[in-house]
TrEMBL record:
Gene3D superfamilies: NAD(P)-binding Rossmann-like Domain (3.40.50.720). Its EC number is 1.1.1.127. Belongs to the short-chain dehydrogenases/reductases (SDR) family. This is 2-dehydro-3-deoxy-D-gluconate 5-dehydrogenase. Keywords: Oxidoreductase. It holds the Pfam family adh_short_C2. InterPro entries: NAD(P)-bd_dom_sf (IPR036291), Sc_DH/Rdtase_CS (IPR020904), SDR_fam (IPR002347). The lineage of its organism: Bacteria, Pseudomonadati, Pseudomonadota, Alphaproteobacteria, Hyphomicrobiales.
Length: 265
C-alpha cells in the first residue's frame, strides 16, 4: 500500500481547535462538564444558563485554565429572542458558531392523574420547545455563515424506555420528542451542512437526580442498570466530542444511548 495516498489522521478527527461552541445548561451537571471538555479539545465556548449562582462562573474559570475563551450568557431557553441574542453575541465575540450542545432541561414527578396543567406545560416548554428554539437560533447562524455545523441535543433514555417507579409522563414524552425532533431537523438540514444528533444518557449523578427527594432511589437506579452504577458527568463528554467533531462526519439523525446497558434489558 502506498502510504502517501493515505490521508488518515485519526487523532485529528477529535480536535476542536479554532471552533466555537454554544452550550445550554452550562452552569450545572452534564452541560457544564461537556462545555469544559469541549474547551479541553480546543474549542471556545459560549455558556448559556438561567442560573444566577456561580455555576456559569465556575465553568468559565475552568475553561480559562485550558487557555480557551468563554462567554457567560444568562438566558432562558424558553425565549427565542434571548437565544437569538445569545447566538449573535457568541458570533460577535468568539467567531462563527460551528457546534452546539443543548443540555438545559428540568425534571420532576407527579402521578399522571394528579399533575396540574402548568407543571406539564412548564416542563414541555423547557425540555422540548427550548431545544427547538435553541436549534433554530443555532442553525440560522450555521446556515448563514456556510461553514456547516454539528448540533447535539441531550435527550434521555426516558425517551426510549419508561423509568420504573418514576411518575413523569411529561418528562418521558418530552425526551421522546427531543429524539424525534433531532432526527427530523437532521433531515431538514442534511443537504445544507448541519448534522443533528442526540445523546440519551441513563441515570447520571447530577443535581437533577441527587436532589433530596431522589436520594432514596439512587440505589434502585444503580441496581436496575446492567453496569450496576450511575454514570458520572465525565462519561457524557466523550460521546459529545465524538458527535460534534469530524470523527462522526457521516453520523446524522443518530440517538446515542449512553446508559450503562440499561436499554438492553
Ligand atoms: P442539571 O444539573 O440540573 O443541569 C441543567 C441546567 O439547565 C441547570 O443549570 C438548569 O438551571 C438549566 N436550565 C433549566 N431550565 C433552563 C431554562 N429554561 N433556560 C436555561 N437554563 C435552564 O441537570 P442535568 O442532570 O445535568 O441535566 C442536563 C440534561 O440532561 C437535561 O436535559 C436532562 O433532562 C438530561 N438528562 C439527565 C439525566 C440525569 O440522570 N441527570 C439523565 C438523562 C438525561 P436550574 O438549576 O435553574 O434549573
Amino acid at each position: 500500500m502506498n502510504d502517501a495516498a493515505i490521508s488518515l489522521n485519526a487523532p485529528a478527527l477529535f480536535d476542536l481547535s479554532g471552533r466555537v461552541a454554544l452550550v445550554t445548561g452550562a452552569g450545572s451537571g452534564i452541560g457544564q462538564r461537556i462545555a469544559m471538555g469541549l474547551a479541553q479539545c480546543g474549542a471556545d465556548v459560549a455558556l448559556v444558563d438561567r442560573r444566577t449562582d456561580d455555576g456559569l462562573a465556575n465553568t468559565a474559570a475552568f475553561i480559562a485554565q485550558t487557555g480557551r475563551r468563554s462567554l457567560q450568557i444568562a438566558a432562558d431557553v424558553t425565549s427565542g429572542e434571548a437565544l437569538e441574542e445569545a447566538v449573535t453575541r457568541t458570533e460577535a465575540e468568539l467567531g462563527p458558531l460551528r457546534m452546539a450542545v443543548n443540555a438545559a432541561g428540568i425534571a420532576n414527578a407527579e402521578r399522571c392523574e394528579d399533575m396540574p396543567e402548568d407543571q406539564y406545560q412548564t416542563l414541555m416548554d423547557i425540555n422540548m420547545k427550548g431545544v427547538w428554539l435553541s436549534c433554530k437560533a443555532e442553525a440560522r447562524a450555521m446556515l448563514s455563515h456556510g461553514k456547516g455545523g454539528s448540533i447535539v441535543n441531550i435527550a434521555s433514555m426516558s425517551g426510549v424506555i419508561v423509568n420504573r417507579g418514576l411518575n413523569q409522563v411529561h418528562y418521558n414524552a418530552s425526551k421522546a420528542g427531543v429524539i424525534h425532533m433531532s432526527k427530523s431537523m437532521a433531515m431538514e438540514w442534511v443537504d445544507r451542512g448541519i448534522r443533528v444528533n442526540s445523546i440519551s444518557p441513563g441515570y447520571t449523578a447530577t443535581p437533577m437526580n441527587t436532589r433530596p427527594e431522589m436520594v432514596h432511589q439512587t440505589r434502585e437506579f444503580e441496581s436496575q442498570t446492567p453496569m450496576q452504577r450511575m454514570a458520572s458527568v465525565d462519561e457524557m463528554v466523550g460521546p459529545a466530542v465524538f458527535l460534534l467533531s469530524d470523527a462522526s462526519s457521516y453520523c446524522t439523525g443518530v440517538d446515542l444511548l449512553v446508559d450503562g446497558g440499561f436499554c438492553c434489558w
